[in-house]
Amino acid sequence: QVQLVESGGGLVQAGDSLRLSCTTSGRTFSIAAMGWFRQAPGKERNIVAAISWSGKRLYYANSVKGRFTISRDNAKNTVYLQMNSLKPEDTAVYYCAADTVGYGLGSGRVSDFGSWGQGTQVTVSS
Description:
Blueprint: E1 2-7, E2 10-13, E3 18-26, E4 33-39, E5 46-52, E6 58-60, E7 68-73, E8 78-83, E9 92-99, H1 104-107, E10 115-116, E11 120-125
Parallel strand pairs: 2-11
Antiparallel strand pairs: 1-3, 3-8, 4-5, 4-9, 5-6, 7-8, 9-10, 9-11
């Protein structure tokens, strides 16, 4: 089992920055990749960024590429999402997720990530 806890969300103005953190515990050695997802009210949960546990493979959604950066510190069992130049359309609940199968980073599908955190709210005002 893998346990995930997100933190770092909050209320910011457009153009501001936030850094989300996701601490992992349990069988972290089984994690092939970590992903950040977001879900706005009435919308599907979609991948924002993902990183292989080695850090050698990265994925970014087109909507955040150039603004968001995913990184990890395996020694701390922590994955980060640095969010810069935030826009109101970035407002959502952000979730971190762990892929223990090996297909999540490549597919970006919610169904390929088996462990999820509780989510942290990010609200960006105009």
